Structures are given as structure tokens and as C-alpha cells.
Amino acid sequence: MKAVWLSLVLTLAIQVMVSLIVFTPPVLAPEAQADVAVGASAVGIVTSLIYAAAAFAALLSGGLIGRFGPIRVSQFSLALCGLGIGLMASANLALIVLGALVIGLGYGPITPSSSAVLADRVPARLRALIFSLKQTGVPIGGALAGALVPLLIIAFGWRSAALAMALAGVAAMLAVQPWRRGVDSGSRGSDPAATRGLVGPLRLALRHARLREMALASFTYSGMQMCLGSFLVVYLHDRAGLSLPAAGAALSTAMLAGVMGRVFWGVVADNWIAPRRLLGLLGGAMSVCAVLVAMVDASWPMAAVLVLSALYGATAVGWNGVYLSEVARVVPAEQAAAATGGSLAMTYSGVVVLPLLFWVIVSTSGSYAAAFGAVALLTAWRAQYFLRRA
Hints:
By secondary structure, the protein is mainly alpha-helical. 82% of the residues lie in helices and 0% in strands. Helix 1 runs parallel beside helix 7, helix 7 crosses helix 16 and helix 11 crosses helix 12.
């Protein structure tokens, strides 16, 4: 079990750092919009670019992991994420676009790498829990972004805040080096047929019936999750009238609830409710929360905003660990990285499409309520199908 917990700590720390960087642009957006001369809601395009590049990188990750090892690939990823957020500090629109793509290239291999590390080491009876614990790194990173980045912006300005995140990424890359050799040497190699080019992982995910159904569900769920991360601060600050620190606190609350949700849902999936049915129930709940968030205005007490944010985060952010543990469960261990990469290509596609759809709706109609409602409708559609097929 010592190897299990060491692997969990390493993969969790890496996940926290890259997620902190990915969630930083939406927090920067309200302050950066004047310097960039683009409205804050356009951060949805940045999010879409990040995850478009991440989908591409996820498909390539199986081969890279087989060649270099999962921790070495994670170090490359940390360096790329740091470089990408550093480019955004320029306030140059072209470099911001390039920075988003670089962050995405770094983010894509992180989850397949961690799945490769954990698939060989985690006992079946703890699979959903361990994978869920590792995936708490995403909302922890988001919570840190919501709590720390506004303080850095107020103290030093948004550009310095972006550069601080870049330095943190490089520091994390160096910090995991002492454990790289031991973890990488003990990880099983990838199946060459499943990791061949861009086609192998995607073919594996789409030809396997259970993987295909889960990947299609994750398209809408991940889009919902990223709409929360990308637009909650912007909506609460620009439309509901909350201060930037208060809006950041709502995001932090949602992400912290997502941390607890990921652990709790992992325990539930291991003991009481089948993972597929649980994923369907979570999809319905996150859809309801999205509709309620669109009703928040300046008359709402802050306590009510925080409670709703917590419920939204527990569902829309809390599902990933159960999903990834199920992906790793239904394939052999040597295919875990490729299956995760292929499935995440669909997951990240949802993160590309739905925030972009959200931005288009807001830009054309001026209504955040319509945008939240559209994403909720798509997610509820997939959730009922998931429940019916369960």
C-alpha cells in the first residue's frame, strides 16, 4: 500500500498544479479585459482553445507515456503549462491564443499519465476511491485559483499574477524529480496497438461499447463543469453585482465542494450505487444547479450564493473520479493510458464545444440565463439516457 499512497500523492500534486494554471485565465479575465481590449466573456474562447489542444495531446499521450514514462511526461506537461500562462501575461492577443494552446498541450497528458501510474498499483476494492482522490486535484486547483489569484491581482496586478503561476508550474516540475525514476520504472508499458498515433486510442474508446457510452456522456458533463469554472466568476461579478473577491469565493466554494464530492461519490460508487447509475443521477442534479445559478442577482444573500455554488460544484465537478475509475476498470491495465486518452478526447471535446456555445449565446442574446439553460438541457438529456441505459 505504500506504493499506492506515494503514487497518489505525486499524481495528486501534479494535477493540482496544472489545474491551478488552467483555472487562472477565467479569474484574470475581469481585470485583464481592459488591457487586452476584449470582453471578459471571451475567456470561453480561451477555455475552448486549451481543451482543443488537450484533446489532441491526450490522444498522443499513450505513446509518449510508453516511451518516456508517466512522471517524465507529467514534468513536460508542467513546463508547458507554465510557459502558456506566462505568455498570457503579455496582454498580446496573439500570444494569449498561443498560450492557451500551449497550456492545452501540457494539460492533455496529465490524466492518462496518472491513470498509467495508478492502474497497476490500486486494488480493485479501492479503485473508485483512489481515482476520485486523485481527481480532487482538479477542484483543489480551481479553489486555489479562486482564492489566491484575486489576492495576487489586487496586490501586484493581473500580469504579475499570471507570471507567478508560470513560476509555480516550473517549481512543481522540479519538485517531483526525486521520485521520477522509481515510479516510472515500476509502471507497466502501454499496449503498442492501442497507442499507435492519434487513431489507436480513439478507436479503442469508440469500439468498446462501455467506453463509448461513458465517453459520450462525459462530453456534456465536462462541458458543464468547464462552464462553471469559466463563467461563474464573470457572471457573478459583471451581472449579479458581486465584488471580485466575493465571486472568487463562490468559485472556491464550488471547487472545494467538488473536492469533497469526488471523494464521497467514489465511496458511494465502491459500496452502494453502480457507477453508471450514479453518473446519471449526478448529471440531473448539475443541470438543476445550472438553472438556479442563472437566477442569482444582487438581492441574493451571500450565504445562499455559497450554498448553491457548493451544490453546483459537488455535482458538476464531483463526477470525474467515478468516471475515470470505470474507464480503467473495463480495460486491461496495459490499455489504461490509451483508453483514458481516447475517452478524454471526447471529454475535452465537450469542454471545447459547450463553453464556446455558452459564449456565442451570451454574445448574441446578452443572456447568461439562456446560456446556462442550454448547457443544462444538453446535460439533462445525456443524464436521462445514462440512467435508462444503466
